[in-house]
Amino acid sequence: MLDMKLIRSNPEMIRKNCVRRGFDVDVDALLELDVQCRQLTGEVETLRAERNRLSKCCAADPAARETVKAMRGKIADKETALAEIQRKIDGIVALMPNLLSDDVPDGKTDADNLEVRRVGEIPVFDFKIRDHQELGETLDILDIARGAKVAQTGFYYWKGKGAILAQSLFFWVQKFLVSRGFTAFMTPCVAKERTLFGTGYLPFFADQTYNLAKEDLALIGTSEQTLVGYHADDLLDGAKLPLCYTAFTPCFRTESGSYGRASRGIFRVHQFHKVEQIIFCRPEDSVKYHEFCLENEETILKTLGLAYHVVNVCVGDLGAPGYKKYDIEAWFPCFNGYREVTSNTNLLDFQSRRLNIRYKDGDKRELVHTISATAATDRMLIAIMENFQQSDGSIVVPEVLRPFTGFDKIEAPKK
Fold first, then answer.
1. Is-contact 336 318, C-beta < 8 A?
2. 49 burial type by CB count under 10 A (0-12 exposed, 13-18 middle, 19+ buried)
3. What does 345-357 look like in DSSP terms, one character per residue?
4. Which distant-in-sequence residues (6+ apart) come within 8 Å of 58 by Cβ?
5. Active-site residues: which are they?
6. Which residues of the chain have pLDDT under 70?
7. Is there a contact between 279 and 371 (Cβ–Cβ < 8 Å)?
8. Is the pTM of this model over 0.85?
9. 388 Cβ contact list (under 8 Å, min separation 6)
């Protein structure tokens, strides 16, 4: 959510930002409501002060008592009108996108994202390769059919050594992040509407949310929601910033609107698993910690031995709450291209303003900035399967994961 003071002082910048981001926002109407709000606020405060002054005379002056009684009704009417104007202001501001970093590229889709760098050697195979779905079935480590039978399409089972590989990856990534100063969490898998609104998933991604019937709860789409919401209405100690949090959770998204997009196997599903990085920091440090999270993601990909490239996400592919976002796309042999495995977003104070998360430093009280960045998802497992497959149909386990899996290769079960 943007600061009304910023909108008031820089209306033309806000108009241009909304147009560039494709949001139809009537900034002039908002500014007119703001004028009405401030004027009415002044009238209410003046009436309250006069009422308080006269109240001191009520005991000795019957006329003052009558005046105060009349003023109460007048104040109540103005407060009702003020609340309605504020509701309208809040409704408009809630639909406004965040500001954009100067270096966010133009563009409409992920095809327009700007490559920052490429890292690693793309593997070359001298045999016919299999995609992760075929490998999963042959090695009996991934069962998509029974996921659909038990739940519906978009749900799946990791099985046997596949499940062990998955758990090993997620545990190793969390262990790595803890070594980098992150505090590990296990969070709820549901969140209230206020939490989803506060983190920017409502109203901007409402169609991606699984709501629980007759409850003010929805399944989380990411632990970003529960980790950022953890500090709602908190006043943090500035001396302890940054706060770096990580959690591993299942994540649930409807994937509404994704029909027709490349989604064979489990690349685009309704339930997946993710290790997240969340950072609360001082405003002047958010660029630094955005890069810090990217460094962590790249270290993970390099250590696993996966080729990837980093892209600066274009304006059309950048969600409304984001100020700037990096995606890392790993190489997927069976797609013959790079595909997203992590996203890393600097949100400035967009979330902290909506959730009232501040820090204190002496007499200073300021909103924190938040960074939300993926560390690992099931997509990394897909990349491991496809990149490290062997001519005999087996998969070599990345060396860093072998102490956790207890095996260095996944082979087809003996018949």
1. no
2. exposed
3. EE-TTHHHHHHT-
4. 64, 65, 68
5. 253, 268, 340, 343, 379
6. 57-62, 64, 256-263
7. yes
8. yes
9. 305, 395, 396, 397, 398
